[in-house]
Amino acid sequence: MGSPPRIDDDVSRAEKLGEPEPMKPDIYEGESIVLDEAEVFLRANNISDETLRDLLADEANVRKVVRKVDMRILPLLAVTYVLQYIDKLALGYAAVFDLFSDTKISQNQYSWFASMFYLAYLVAEYPWTALAQRTRMAKVVSACVFAWGAVLMATAACSDFSGLAACRFFLGVFEAPITPCFMMIVGMWYMRSEQPFRAGVFYSCNGVGSMLGGLLSYGMGQIKTFPVWKCIFLLCGGITVIWGAVLLVFLPDDILKAKHFTVHEKATLIARTRAGQTGVLNRHIKWYQVKEALLDPQVWLLTFFVLLNEVINGGMSNFGKLIIKGLVKDPLQTTALGIPQGAFQVVFILSGTYFASRFRNARTWVMMFYMVPTIIGTSMVWKLDRQQYKVGVLIGYYLCGGFVSALVVALQMPASNLGGYTKRVTGTAVVFAAYCIGNIIGPHAFLGRESPTYPTGCIVILACSVSQVLIAIALRVLLVYRNKKRDEAEAANPSPEVIDGHEAVTDLTDLENPRFRYAI
User: Fold this and answer.
1) What HEC string does 193-236 produce?
2) Where does the chain cross the membrane (predicted)?
């Protein structure tokens, strides 16, 4: 393939020919507000469009750069997600042991802990996301990871409902920016066709976290000299505090500030992003893009899809262990039987996001079909006799996790299908607001008096699952229609040839950019 083009090739060619340098003009005052920050970087480093085309044409170099991103960025996101999931469910693990008796809380009070967490998440998510856009994303994430670890450790000192509720609230505050920022990080570093599977890789670590958390709780369940539930909070929180410091050192804020990537590699990554028409980074909030995001039907269909999805999650994540506890009496057995659910979740997420990345326009199909295992599993949990078919109930519980794969694809859609950095941030924030509201509502469908079968909760899950299938169909129809209209307009009035991704560098939204095509 030959050696990759040097960044200064354009300058040297111009100097030899005695011609003016083929550089773009200097950035005028105020122009940086319009331009994507990556374009500012390209101009500052004298990198022309011709050079970017040469970089993209060098397939061996592109694969090498993508592997480097996979090795340096994805592991940091993945480990953070493992810890986040373990920490989020630490209360569920603690509930299997002596949390209820030691703190004198009831099942109805326990239902409110998830609501407190996601209420805080809802309040804090957009301010954190806006702060991450305007400042340094990795530093915001690292500080929040460190803080949520400290809050988790403080939970071990609680002795009543009010103390636990306060800790859950602050845990929600500091976990709020993690997932939206990670989705934006994936959207920044990867092309649209690569994004679903990469998001699936770190999101599948929820399943890894579920398995590791179960094993950890099972091991600590052997402790007889100290309250097990306190051990869970102290150990998980301590590990998270240490990991926050690791992120502070190694997670880059963005492509442009990544210390371990050369200018040549950064230019390659920028060229790939420009080809996707979404842009890389713009720190200026553009209010017209906020308005456009709030009026876009695509955003609201995704919002309602995620809302219903997280009603399911809010119930299953907080009461799943109690459903198993209704089948067996030993706390250690309950913990052990919950471990396979994590493995099922990993399989669902990785397979669903692989199909969404591997096959063209398959994302909304994944959003539809991966609700089917949840419908089947919930029906089994609800209707099978718990004395005669315990194994069947367990398998049904494991199948319920199919909805998570549909969620991951839906959460990545704003990063893939919204052009304009402010619109993308706003759309992501709106969708994640629904994520929080769903998790606030979900636990209250599982009524304490209906334990351990929770028929009302099962009915709510089935209704949400069927509704999500219908919403995914509507979303697909909308996006197919938009792409068809743009194809027809371009065929009728062919536009002059321009540099691929030129519209992205001026931070246009998907509705402003006639070359933008939606991932379906």
Assistant:
1) CCHHHHHHHHHCHHHHHHHHHHHHHHHHCCCCCCCHHHHHHHHH
2) 73-97, 109-128, 140-157, 169-189, 201-220, 232-251, 299-316, 336-357, 364-382, 394-413, 425-447, 459-479
